[in-house]
Backbone:
């Protein structure tokens, strides 16, 4: 007997899954860029304070017991509001291509994994979670190629003015000076460590998110059918 799509939990659930082929890529990337930029604006002052604190001892400006609040006040007093947003323009604008790269690689990898695991004998939530976990790790490894040099540039701009730091006239001046002094290796300083600690975290986050979403959809669809 053929089941109706409106009353089938499996078919109803499949309608909630948005694969890469069915995705409105223009809206997806534009909305993602807007949300990411807004998020970055909110947390950027914290990133500036954290970066300043991490170089406090070597720069000789703050002691090892200096608090984040005192660093924040110091930046405001000496550099104004512009100081706590130092490097934000480079981070926000430079992150846009990186976000497209990260989200595209995530969705493509997830779609490939879901297709390759379709015939495996495992619970659907496990398959969805595993596919998203692998996609999250792959996406992070790919996007690190772009984001690590961007982080190097932004961090150099954040610590501008501290003793022992070179004054740079904007993003391209940072690139020119790093390439001159350290070469390509300087632009990828910390790449290995970033990939090692971010990739498992990305896999865990996306895997848990997708599996939880799948289970919630299944529960809500089953509850709806019981009520009907």
Residues:
């Amino acid at each position: 007997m053929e089941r109706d799509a409106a009353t089938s939990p499996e078919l109803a659930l499949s309608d909630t899954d948005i694969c890469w082929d069915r995705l409105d890529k223009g809206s997806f990337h534009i909305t993602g860029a807007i949300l990411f930029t807004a998020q970055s604006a909110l947390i950027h002052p914290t990133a500036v304070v954290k970066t300043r604190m991490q170089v406090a001892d070597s720069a000789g400006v703050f002691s090892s017991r200096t608090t984040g609040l005192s660093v924040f006040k110091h930046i405001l007093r000496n550099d104004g509001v512009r100081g706590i947003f130092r490097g934000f323009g480079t981070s926000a604008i430079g992150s846009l291509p990186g976000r497209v790269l990260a989200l595209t690689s995530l969705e493509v990898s997830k779609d490939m994994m879901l297709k390759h695991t379709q015939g495996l004998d495992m619970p659907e939530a496990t398959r969805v979670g595993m596919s998203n976990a692998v996609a999250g790790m792959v996406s992070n490894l790919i996007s690190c190629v772009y984001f690590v040099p961007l982080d190097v540039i932004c961090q150099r701009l954040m610590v501008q003015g501290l003793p022992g730091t070179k004054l740079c006239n904007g993003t391209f001046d940072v690139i020119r000076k790093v390439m001159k002094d350290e070469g390509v290796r300087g632009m990828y300083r910390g790449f290995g460590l970033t990939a090692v600690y971010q990739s498992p975290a990305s896999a865990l986050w996306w895997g848990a998110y997708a599996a939880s979403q799948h289970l919630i959809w299944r529960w809500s669809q089953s509850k709806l059918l019981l009520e009907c």
Notes: Confidence is low (pLDDT under 50) at residues 1-16. The CA atoms of residues 182 and 189 lie 10 Å apart. DSSP finds ten helices and no strands in the chain. The two ends are 20 Å apart (CA to CA).
